[in-house]
């Protein structure tokens, strides 16, 4: 494994750890999920621009947003919203496992339709991951039949997450990677802004603002920026560890917030 691939794998691991903190932070903040998601993306974009300003690369993030970046930002907001709705209608196991079937599905789409070929061992590992997803879903048949709405939200979340991965991996853009990532975060937050303004829930305490800042810094700025970095530099082959680590962290930290069984 060369240095660039190793760096991308470390970035994928960092993204998984960072994004996996969202459930715990949301629970501790005692703020509704839509508001948490909005500040995760909005503050994430602001932290990214601040980072670029401090490192002398701010011009790379101030270019005109591309259609690819805006569309990818829409997919970010959509998969998070569908994920939250799934959590409210089905078990955390079904919601999380369905969502994180997206990277293996994206790997298969890349292999068969986008000429990003997998090795035999990598293809086998992806097929095993998808088989595991199917077994978990079959084992949760009672919960799914009890409320198909939650499972449909889970599938919608998976589809949007898959499209987010593919857009970042194969979307053509002349803009810098930093610019694309910043505009993705901002576009996602703007999609959620009307829902936040119409919400009856408001941030009332300074401690809650602190949690929103941390949410923007860790799962927002660090999580999503590292995820985009890894997606664009890794072939489909090294991607399976990312969907393995991430659901484990969401199951452990998110379960207490959504109080699913």
TrEMBL record:
GO CC annotations, alphabetized: membrane
Query: What's the source species' lineage?
Result: Bacteria, Pseudomonadati, Pseudomonadota, Gammaproteobacteria, Vibrionales
Q: What protein does this entry describe?
A: Putative membrane protein
Under the heading SUPFAM superfamilies, the entry gives: Multidrug resistance efflux transporter EmrE
Report domain EamA positions: 7-137, 149-237
Region forming the signal peptide: none
Q: Which UniProt keywords apply?
A: Membrane, Transmembrane, Transmembrane helix
Residue spans crossing the bilayer? 36-56, 68-86, 92-114, 121-139, 151-170, 182-203, 209-231
Xref: PANTHER family: ACYL-MALONYL CONDENSING ENZYME-RELATED (PTHR22911), MOBA-LIKE NTP TRANSFERASE DOMAIN-CONTAINING PROTEIN (PTHR22911:SF79)
Return the Pfam families for the record.
EamA (PF00892)
């Amino acid at each position: 494994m060369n240095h660039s691939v190793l760096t991308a794998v470390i970035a994928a691991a960092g993204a998984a750890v960072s994004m996996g903190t969202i459930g715990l932070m949301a629970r501790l903040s005692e703020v509704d999920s839509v508001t948490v998601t909005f500040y995760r993306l909005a503050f994430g974009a602001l932290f990214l621009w601040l980072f670029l300003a401090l490192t002398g690369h701010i011009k790379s993030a101030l270019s005109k947003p591309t259609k690819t970046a805006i569309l990818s930002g829409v997919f970010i907001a959509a998969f998070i919203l569908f994920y939250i709705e799934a959590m409210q209608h089905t078990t955390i196991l079904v919601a999380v496992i369905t969502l994180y079937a997206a990277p293996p599905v994206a790997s298969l789409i890349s292999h068969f339709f986008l000429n990003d070929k997998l090795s035999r061992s990598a293809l086998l590992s992806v097929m095993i991951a998808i088989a595991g997803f199917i077994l978990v879903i079959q084992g949760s048949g009672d919960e799914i039949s009890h409320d198909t709405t939650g499972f449909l939200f889970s599938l919608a979340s998976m589809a949007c997450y898959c499209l987010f991965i593919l857009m970042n991996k194969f979307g053509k853009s002349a803009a810098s990677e930093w610019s694309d990532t910043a505009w993705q975060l901002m576009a996602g937050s703007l999609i959620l802004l009307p829902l936040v303004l119409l919400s009856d829930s408001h941030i009332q305490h300074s401690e809650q603002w602190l949690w929103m800042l941390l949410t923007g810094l860790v799962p927002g700025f660090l999580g999503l920026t590292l995820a985009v970095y890894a997606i664009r530099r890794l072939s489909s082959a090294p991607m399976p560890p990312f969907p393995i680590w991430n659901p484990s962290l969401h199951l452990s930290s998110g379960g207490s917030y959504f109080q699913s069984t």
